[in-house]
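ok so i was messing around last nite and threw this chain in just to see what happens. nothing serious, just curious
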Amino acid sequence: MSLDPNYTGNPDGGGNVKPISYKYAPSGAAIPVYTNVDVGGATWNVFEGENRHKVISFLRTSKTNSGTVDIKSVLQWIKSKGYFGEINVGNVQYGVEITSSPGGVNFHFSNWTLTSIIAP
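result:
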């Protein structure tokens, strides 16, 4: 699963950086399998593809530089669509994917936290 809160490109799957997808439009834009999905505290377009493993990519429909994502509700939504059954999350990773930076770009990260609530 990939959550892209501040994508480069367009939320419709076009632009400079495209999500992994099984389907692409003649323009080269990735085609979402779900659009305007409200889950996890944001609205997303959802793409499905494969990169040696199934990849489900969520691209926000509007850009943001800060915010909160309820990962549990996103996982519950994915489960409701039949992508997987009962699972345990082993780890959560945070990172960036820098695809190009003509002339150089500085990236600043001021804060990242993960709050885990263990269910009874």
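not much to say yet. The chain has a mean pLDDT of 82.
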